[in-house]
Amino acid sequence: MSLDYENDSALHEKLIGEVLSQYPDKSAKRRKKHLSVATSGDQPGQEGKALSECDVKSNIKSIPGVMTIRGCAYAGSKGVVWGPVKDMVHISHGPVGCGHYSWSQRRNYYVGLTGIDTFVTLQFTSDFQEKDIVFGGDKKLEKVIDEIEELFPLNKGISVQSECPIGLIGDDIEAVSRKKAKEHEKTIVPVRCEGFRGVSQSLGHHIANDSIRDWVFDKTEVEFEAGPYDVNVVGDYNIGGDAWATRILLEEVGLRVVGNWSGDATLAEVERAPKAKLNLIHCYRSMNYICRHMEEKYGIPWMEYNFFGPSQIEASLREIAKHFGPEIVDKTEAVIAKYRPLVDAVIAKYQPRLEGKTVMLYVGGLRPRHVITAYEDLGMRIVGTGYEFAHNDDYQRTGHYVNKGTLIYDDVTGYELEKFIEGIRPDLVGSGIKEKYPVQKMGIPFRQMHSWDYSGPYHGYDGFAIFARDMDLAINNPVWDLYDAPWKKKVAPPMAVAAE
Amino acid sequence: MSLDYENDSALHEKLIGEVLSQYPDKSAKRRKKHLSVATSGDQPGQEGKALSECDVKSNIKSIPGVMTIRGCAYAGSKGVVWGPVKDMVHISHGPVGCGHYSWSQRRNYYVGLTGIDTFVTLQFTSDFQEKDIVFGGDKKLEKVIDEIEELFPLNKGISVQSECPIGLIGDDIEAVSRKKAKEHEKTIVPVRCEGFRGVSQSLGHHIANDSIRDWVFDKTEVEFEAGPYDVNVVGDYNIGGDAWATRILLEEVGLRVVGNWSGDATLAEVERAPKAKLNLIHCYRSMNYICRHMEEKYGIPWMEYNFFGPSQIEASLREIAKHFGPEIVDKTEAVIAKYRPLVDAVIAKYQPRLEGKTVMLYVGGLRPRHVITAYEDLGMRIVGTGYEFAHNDDYQRTGHYVNKGTLIYDDVTGYELEKFIEGIRPDLVGSGIKEKYPVQKMGIPFRQMHSWDYSGPYHGYDGFAIFARDMDLAINNPVWDLYDAPWKKKVAPPMAVAAE
Amino acid sequence: MTRILPQTKSAAVNPLKSSQPLGAALAFLGVSGAIPLFHGNQGCTSFALVLLVRHFKEVIPLQTTAMDEVATILGGMDHLEEAILNLKTRTNPKLIGVCTTALVETRGEDFARDLSNIKMLRARELAGTEIVLANTPDFDGAIEEGWARAVTAMIQRITLPGEQARQSKKIAILPGWNLTVADIEHLRETVESFGLKAVILPDLSGSLDGTVPDDRWVPTSYGGTTVKDIQELGTAMQCIAICEHMRRPAEVLQGLTGVPYALFQSLTGLKDTDRFVSLLSSVSGATAPARIRRRRSQLQDALLDGHFHFGGKKIAIAAEPDQLYQLATFFTGMGAEIAAAVTTTGTSKILEKVPAEQVQVGDLGDLEGLAAGADLLVTHSHGRQAAERLGIPLMRAGFPIFDRLGSQHRLTTLYRGTRDLIFDVANIFQASQHAPTPQSLDPFRNREVPDDSRPPTFSRH
Amino acid sequence: MTRILPQTKSAAVNPLKSSQPLGAALAFLGVSGAIPLFHGNQGCTSFALVLLVRHFKEVIPLQTTAMDEVATILGGMDHLEEAILNLKTRTNPKLIGVCTTALVETRGEDFARDLSNIKMLRARELAGTEIVLANTPDFDGAIEEGWARAVTAMIQRITLPGEQARQSKKIAILPGWNLTVADIEHLRETVESFGLKAVILPDLSGSLDGTVPDDRWVPTSYGGTTVKDIQELGTAMQCIAICEHMRRPAEVLQGLTGVPYALFQSLTGLKDTDRFVSLLSSVSGATAPARIRRRRSQLQDALLDGHFHFGGKKIAIAAEPDQLYQLATFFTGMGAEIAAAVTTTGTSKILEKVPAEQVQVGDLGDLEGLAAGADLLVTHSHGRQAAERLGIPLMRAGFPIFDRLGSQHRLTTLYRGTRDLIFDVANIFQASQHAPTPQSLDPFRNREVPDDSRPPTFSRH
């Protein structure tokens, strides 16, 4: 169900103009490419059609002194792709900062005995000191690997996540990895994800994907009995239990999930991936590279799916079922029918409380487009959306999700986003922790849509019920009534207003 | 081991004089009878010899407007004797205050499923309202009993603990108890422990003892196979686990503890008590009545014992063993020998930290005499002691515990006690919660010796180690060094001193 | 409107309420140089004393008429007289506050006449000591009623009647018993920051604030409202009563002296504090100082940071009526809902305004029965075992709190106290968060009861 | 003397320390109208920013020079210049605080010269904005060092050198990073109560205290020390440095201007606060006001009420050196003992005074290994999982604290902060008390390790 509504293009064009007017000319010209208004909502499936007249220009360099929300390649590899692989130890290789800062920033849930056979929430760093910078860190890396083998013998493998200095001091982490892998008979994966590579975390995804291709696939004998309905779920990081909610549905329609990348994943799941029959991509942005590789090398087809909200769940399940033929199609229809009453109950409860509420999104990965319909399923309207680190293919994929007049912003700065929010004053903003406090101080309800704000899962039917409840809790909390937005204040001293 | 020391009689006589000089004549005359200085330390076993020249006069009425530490008969029955019987429900019968105030004031430990088959830490009251006072409460009591039977069907019996108004409004709780006992086929014990009876909690003990005699003994068929080494432990309320520590020792020397009154006790233990071979009295004050009755009626001898500190433990174990003959005597010597190294280790550790430290005690029950030797076992000295609600036989029993010159105070007021403490300035005061804060504010270390200050057990060898540690922690805490006692302050503004 | 449900049973199982004389004694303790005197047996006094000591961890100068069996039969006037004279001789208090107990009230003596007789006969000996009587049988009301009766009695007995010259900067504050020592300190400081002078009756912040007196032996309360202040209440510009149970004393003061009063049913929360600050502004003619504005701003921020943790949470509260209202409105104002509300007496008008479907007059047994599935229990320390049995965290509020330190130093009112409450509660929620597991995911599970695995409780409802 | 043990392994497992540039950024955030600028990749800045936001729950105006691959190879001066100019144009800050990161420090450029060049070439455009450089590579030191370096750099760059006319009522305070926002507020209020004026550098209480700015879009810090205050530090009568890591900035200030300094290695505890109050008395010539005396009295009472819960308790702390000293002396002063002490770097002189047998330079893995049998863990939020594995309660202290609200509003210093700490810790102990059972009684059990049933941990020691 895509709601039939149109956003205020003129207002949005005006806001873009105002924002840009504050920059020096050169910067304004560069920033202009990132901001746009959608021309018309396209039909689903029309991938590739232009999103807007001027279109956004994405995946280009950040500007010094203009802080945006983006991370770096290390964040893309260690933080997103590799970090959740639970039975491996991931070394943040270099000085302590990167590892410490990024520790526990994502809620990748898992099961396992932490510190014994599972290591997701532990943090390992080679903690470079000045002498390591001066004399090189390869010797230290060897020691660190040896120590890990001794302290955590049940680890299934190690990855070496390079921080910036590694690429500058000429260390040969590949050689160390090869040597130590042989010595300990373990998989050791060197990842060249130094932060200065690329313009955001996005290149880190690519590098991490490549390291799977080069250092994991076909490197060990995989004993695995493949079946006809085997699928990999790729790019679901199990934030708040998403992957678990997804697996429930896929298994109900008769498929077997043989790998989940990389939420709650084991190294073995990654190794056996090439034996599956289909790759189901959740986060296209971070994992399309390896899927394209698997398609090319092993002939495994891939397809995207979307399990946010009942409209997309149903559409995606049917698409997936089609791939496997009548038996699965029948089961799928039964599953959809089974969940209908639940969906109706959720909508009946929350739609009256959420109908017509407007939402602005600014997130990473696939969410700026994928969650749109979930909101619309509840009667809400998306008035603006944007990606932290998208490429142009992301924006092409966004076209059919957004309605005419929707404001589109790429790699937006705090300043720009706040100006847009202030101008539009939506009923809800869904973005990240950095945006949370400024938006709330504007008197506008907020939910973190990276991490589900300590809630979740949001995938699947189970997740939809939680999603609906969370949005209701955020928007309808009574504190918003107490909050006099500062711009509504009279010039009188604040107390005079406050005291009524 | 009784340390050989003598306290400062002259100082103590002077302090008594000073304290009394503050009272109106009439009150001074009455208070004088409660205060005294010990003439000489007697030898153990010489019960009955005069404690001091003037002797204290105890168990006499309190003076209006001169608040002491004493409680009332209800406190003695509900709070001490009956409350810990764990599988019965004890109704505080009357207005809510008494029940609420006394709730969880003693740490009678127990095992059991609270609220299911065990009720010690629950509080039940008939919560009288004005109409119950005016029209009488018997009907309400019936209802309360019925409700308890319905809500807590696994209770083994009920006691009705009368609060003051019951005795005034002419309720017939005995008739109600009889009626309901028949109806529910349960033991129901009415206890006439109205607070206005007697001068302290002491009469409540007696009344509670009598109610056991009249409403429990010989009322049901007791199926129980008696053995030759069966003993009851009487008057151990299992504060902080004391009774458990006691039981360990008695069982090690070959006895069988068939009843423990009333810490962690069941109604069945009370019922079968007359079948034991010996009653071992811990708290003589609260339970001598029923032991004398059992001696008279069932021919069960009784003896007092003292499990505080190794000297008394050894002496008591040997006394007990003598009663049972050579087999038990041999086992007892083996047990004593087994624990010697532990005792030596405790003393070696703590004596250097506690040697020569002076102690003043003011507690209830048997403690003002029984714990003395435990302190002396650690090299400490008792300079003053007194009972809250003693009778003369308590003071007779105290004689052989105290050394010459020890200050003795009976039913002391907060004012008197503080004056004594201020005059003597001992290194430690052991008393109750009401004394804790004034004493500490004087800059003097304190331990609660009713409730073991949330610690315990203090009985037995296990308890001695804990006791020694606790006294060390209290006396040697560094905060006492920080504390400028106010009378040591110069006249200068406090900061000038403080800032040094 | 909130439904008020009467008690469901005759027994109280784990009573919520303590009793009236204790509330009155507390109020008297807020007067400087005072001694509360329980007219009853030494036992009641001793019990109440211990409970007060455990709660405040302070010396409590509570006294007793030590009624014995004979006096119980023959009448207690002699004991009352002897107690008063003994106290006067030994400690020369400024105020003796007589609180009657169930024992003497059951006999139904005429205490007012007894007291008049004593005062008349002993006029010379008792000069310089006010003696105030509060009729507070245990079989009626609870702390709230006892406190209000004592304050009313003090005003009736001590305050000079008649219209008097008003001091433009002076306001009288009559706080409910449920404000902490820190609340009173903060209230005074807030009022003073507007250039006003506050006379607070009772004022526990002087006597029970955890200080160490310089002069050692203090047989009465120290700090607190002076008797002179009580005499001169009629010179205030404005009286502010906090909590519904203080309406009666405020009315009596107005009746006696004409001082108008404003009633705040709660001082917790942004709106009520705004109203309070606004009143201070208008009385003083001064705008709110920077410090107050900053506190408001910090509270706004705490509302933003904290609301997230409260949304949709289910709270079970057992408290006396005004505190129930104070806490319940705080929680619902943050987006939580009141899943269970239990209170001590059904007569207070404030109960109708409690933002819950119904309020049960009852005990902690009722709370335990109603609270299954809640996210937080709120009551005094005796709720700890119910909390443990239910596996639900407990926030301690009310009286007694004997198993935590510093409860009197926690702010619960005005901007800052509301801010602190938000942090405290949000942190309890954060500490007891549970992550989903693969097994716990089930779309058909009833999410309204987040954890079905809780053990059944013994109370029926 | 305390033994300082060097790191035992090459890896850091669950690092205790975060890194230097973050400490420097924090210090710059305590200046009004400032923007800290990370000279490095956008990624480092983004990570640090998120961590700061999670800790403070505030908007953090951290900026980046956005070094990319080309700049990394060819040198970063252009990026630095562009960043500074962009910031100047768009937000006109009073101060830009450049913090170098491992990325640019590894290249080993001469940033000081770069900056001089930029300032010279762009003098006109940059007028009115101070630009301060702190060399803070991640591969050296931790927050403490970064903070101290930034403060030193600000004094060196901004403070007017030379002896100046002294203002008799003005004192300069250089607080360590480990003081909370509430500590700073309280410090200022305490100083002012003596009739003195305090210039506090840095002052996080203005900018990160959880207020909601009236003016919406504030691209720099708001509140905090003004640049003018920093310029005029030389007119203070006295400088007070708090924590050993502030000795260097205090020395630099004295060297530049002759202002004498007194160093307080900790402001937690009765004795140190007495010394502080005494100094204020002597500088101001005023005796301590009643409010301060009352607080001291309340602390005394808290010492009495609280010591009982601390006696014999075993505490395991992991913190940066000065905070380790502050907390360890607090605990031992209450009768607890330090069973494990872990810190970030071994160079601070304060470590020798930590009241523990030994101090391990290491990580939270070390803490977890050393803490078995302790009664309390004390470290930042990342210690929560170790605490859970060990079954020992965690008191959160240091940076980051992201899973509790209000950590910046907790007092930890002076009389009141010490009092609050006592309550907090005593309440943790009270909440985790265990009663004995018949089974647990055994005289031969080793009481030094209260619970043998704890799971083994993965770290070896």
Automatic annotation (TrEMBL), chains A, B:
It comes from the Bacteria. It holds the Pfam family Oxidored_nitro. It catalyses: N2 + 8 reduced [2Fe-2S]-[ferredoxin] + 16 ATP + 16 H2O = H2 + 8 oxidized [2Fe-2S]-[ferredoxin] + 2 NH4(+) + 16 ADP + 16 phosphate + 6 H(+). The keyword ATP-binding applies. Its cofactor is [8Fe-7S] cluster; [7Fe-Mo-9S-C-homocitryl] cluster. Keywords: ATP-binding, Iron, Iron-sulfur, Metal-binding, Molybdenum, Nitrogen fixation, Nucleotide-binding, Oxidoreductase. Signal peptide: none annotated. This molybdenum-iron protein is part of the nitrogenase complex that catalyzes the key enzymatic reactions in nitrogen fixation. Tetramer of two alpha and two beta chains. Forms complex with the iron protein (nitrogenase component 2). This is Nitrogenase protein alpha chain. It comes from Rhizobium mesoamericanum STM3625.
UniProtKB/TrEMBL annotation, chains C, D:
InterPro entries: ChlB/BchB/BchZ (IPR050152), Nase/OxRdtase_comp1 (IPR000510), Nase_Mo-Fe_CF (IPR005975). GO terms for molecular function: oxidoreductase activity. Pfam families: Oxidored_nitro. Residues 434-461 are annotated as: Disordered. Signal peptide: none annotated. Residues 444-454 have a biased composition (Basic and acidic residues). This is Nitrogenase iron-molybdenum cofactor biosynthesis protein nifN.
